[in-house]
Automatic annotation (TrEMBL):
Similarity field: Belongs to the TTI2 family.
Region (Disordered): 202-222
Top-rank taxon: Eukaryota
InterPro entries xrefs: Tti2 (IPR018870)
Pfam name, any one: Tti2
Protein name: Uncharacterized protein
GO cellular component terms, A-Z: cytosol; nucleus; TTT Hsp90 cochaperone complex
Amino acid sequence: MFESVRTAVKAQLQNKVNVNEAELLSSLLPESYSLAQICDELVTDEDQLESLLILSGCFDEFERLQREDNDEESSIKLSLWVSKAIVPGGDCVSENEAFEDKPSSSRNEALRLAQRKGTLGLKSLQVLCRLNDSVPDTRVLLSVLAFTSQKDPWTTSESASIAQQFFSLPSIQRYTSNPEFIPQKLLQEFTRPLFSASKPESITTAGRKAMPSTAPPKRHDFVNEKKSQPWRYEVPYSIAVLEWAVQNASDEIILTSWPLIIPPLLTLLDTPTTPLLVRGLNLTTTFLPRLSTKPQLLTQTGLFSVFEEAILPTTLYLPSITPLEDSLLILPAAYSALFALYTARFQPTPHPSPAKTETETEMGTVKATINRSSKAIAETEQHQRLHFLDRVFRRGILPAASHTSSSSHSSAITIVLLAHVSPIVEKLGMHAVKHLKSIIPMLAQAFCVPRYDLIQQALRTLQVVILNCWARIGEEAWRIEVVRMLVVCKETVHVFQLGREDVRMARLWESMAVVGRLLVRAVEGRVDMREELRPLVEADAEVGEVFGI
């Protein structure tokens, strides 16, 4: 029935002739056909792209489709075939993710084929889903989930949009909202077996922290790497499925199914390949705050330290060992994941109400005891919170700043570092004063570089530092250093002829004025800044503009 159509489609694909496929198929398709006939002719493991093109053409000419009593059976058979035909395989793994690099032309051809098959197949699955009232097989849903993330090279904006529309269908939403779908079908039956062989040694199979081992570390088995990582080399779309599951799971499902999510997450964090590592960090940032309703979970299971030790090393993926473009992807994702870990573990604790004066009674004594206990717990929690932020700064910021200080790529990396110093200082509050001896030199160096975005970020960070460390900034040594930095910043703009007429430079002058005036207000009542800055203002009137005096 479809022989002539298949012949024409095959010729068009082989010759790569630029013709209107819709018109070609419309002119060659039979006047009528049924789902059963389509199944008999098209369901084959060979020439899948041709079959998908013809199937899509058949559904485009929907008025020619003849309905029959056995349509449901044919629809199920077609759906399963389409789902099998479109799922991307290991040949779509990009060059820097593959164990053995394939020729670029071969890999690119595999990706083009996967993109084309995916778009055609998803359109057909949408039609088949509307034709069949029964819920699609899980294999069909998994094949659609494979195209839900545009981070995957086989997913185009069109296929991602179709996949989103598919999961918006009422019948699909009813099924996927079932409390058993995500934890059982996706996490337990699909992702867990794929990631089980490559689970990090830092956790148990139940997703908890493993006991420290005295055995020597295992040597990496490069030969069997492919076998131990089927999620990466055989079923690369498993990451998209995991992302969709985490993003669409309810809080209740997250709190009950976390042992199924954490091993794959830590596996991704242990992967040195940049695209996979960044996706792992971003997914960690999405997942961890969902545990914030049970902050004790991370400490009781030992997972807080496991995540900390998994994320912190990623802040050292720096040039020149790591390409600059990769570092600029990894570092922001790493810091976001660390802040997500902070949010999940440390919740704002209300200050315990003071004990009542009538503590002579038995009830009053009990309340006083509870109050003292609550205060002790709050103090311990506060100590742990501050200690974590100190570790993030000392192990996640300072080494990177020191490493890049003499690098030709230092400006781009420093912008990222300073952008994440600000939230650390805000969370530490007045306790950030202990880090002034490290932060101020970073800022001073940034103000010497004639780069707009670097200076602007340094001014934002300095503003945060003054707001939170104003008590110490008011001391003579730090106060003079901040004044010096702002004067250097002003001179940097002038020396490199970055005049005020430029809109961006005008913004810099505004930012300098905000920070300068903030410093004056911070030390107000202790120091007469007008008198202290008089010699500078007399030498350069613009200094007065910066500080508003």
